[in-house]
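We close this part of the discussion by returning to an individual protein. Part of our work consisted of pairing the sequence of a single chain with a tokenised description of its backbone. The amino acid sequence and the backbone structure tokens for this protein are reproduced below.
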Amino acid sequence: MNLPNRITVARMILIPVFMLFMLVEFPFGELKIFGEDITYAMLIATALFIVAAATDWLDGYYARKRNLVTSFGKFLDPLADKLLVAAALIGLVELQLVPAWIAIVIISREFAVTGIRLVAASAGDVIAASALGKWKTVSQMVAIIASLLHNIPFSALSIPFATIALQVAVVLTIWSGIDYFLKNKHIILRSV
């Protein structure tokens, strides 16, 4: 297994560790930042999420720079991203930090796009991520991080940044999903 694929697998391994710190009440105590209380466990979970999200850029960088792009990596990398985002959103819904409908919209789009990718792969086609899809991913990561941090430091300024970031993520998720389906409708029609 090459380095980019190992980085992707490491991202997947980080997901349950991230979820553990996010959802289990550890007796580490809490910290007051900008007037808001946040547990040390949530800060650790946020740091783990940031590291996992950063590995998405890192594995792609190494794959392109060293010409190590593989079919396995093209399949596994977006899957790892979707698992990370889905796990985070479900956890945030459990913690009542994100409305369930937002998680449903984002996760549904990811399942639908993965379905088209699988249909394309069965026909020997590989669909690369679009620029819009990459912006969608960045917006989701920013929204999740802001939600994990309970909107700190923006809460001290009475700016609902986490809410705005979630709304932007939903808009880009829907927009990129529609764009994805329109650009690849020939694959869908061919497989029916």
Q: What stands out?
A: Residues 109 and 177 are 6 Å apart (CA to CA). Residues 3-191 form a domain with the Four Helix Bundle (Hemerythrin (Met), subunit A) fold (CATH 1.20.120.1760). The chain has one domain: 3-191.
